[in-house]
User: Fold this.
Amino acid sequence: MASSALVQTIAVQIRQKIQTGVWSPGDHLSAQKVADDFNVSRSPAREALVLLAEQSILEQLPNRGFFVLEPLQETRDLPDDSVPFEEPDAYYRLSEDWLNNAIPAEVTEQFLRTRYDLTKAQLIDVLNRASKVGWVTPKPGYGWRFLDVAKTPESLAQIYRVRSLIEPAALLEPTYRHDAAKLQRWKKEQQKLLEGGIETLPADVLLKSGIRFHEEFIQLSGNPLYHMILVQMNNMRRLIEYRSMIDRNRFYKQCAEHIRMIELVEQDNNAEAAQLMKQHLSGSFADKSPILHLRSLASDISPSAPERGAPVLTEESDR
Assistant:
């Protein structure tokens, strides 16, 4: 029997943790541990573990549970400018139409089903994914409403200016917790990327790894408002950054700076870590803005959505 969408999602997230070094070969994974990590019940957690065992990503030992096998070494089969993410095709067609202002802000399910040739179940899956990220919401009673997202280089610049204020400030909070175990885990993850993961991991894993680093790093501030604001801004910027051209060389600088910030925090030098964070974010946007500007001009000249059979959405550094 086919696995549910929830089980598939959990399995993908487990793979990502293995690929980025959060879980290493030999680590024991129990259904309860996975359920706790992903805030789900034990049943889908165990189904996801069984699924990964069938794919030879985990080993299931009688009366002992599941264990991580050798590191995943997935190579890229597609050019860098068309590496797919894990969401279904229709998700990206819908997001591209919204970015290009090709659909109205308020729509009915029938309109979307007809436009993207989807069944009701397929459409609800796409809308639920978009709703979880934060750019679609159901209207009271009937229909769906698309929410504001960063659609231009100018709106993305505003987001980065706010991030350049709150992320360094979070490092200077008096309630900042120096969690040695988490800092070591994040450093290990970044080092694994530098040691080969940048060249071999899929696009979505690289993108989400960086987003996760910044969101978890800011949580140590002890002030939940910083994290809440950053998550919302990441949701708003992700759609336009899918358009950015991939340059894997940027990830090397990004990961090296992540590691240096971790080391500074380990040394109780949060002031220098905050300064590096500000430079890190400023440099990231400076790297992206020329490409995003050209993409924006192209959209202005030809605002029509891409052909429905072949959407091209690309990855970018998370920073």
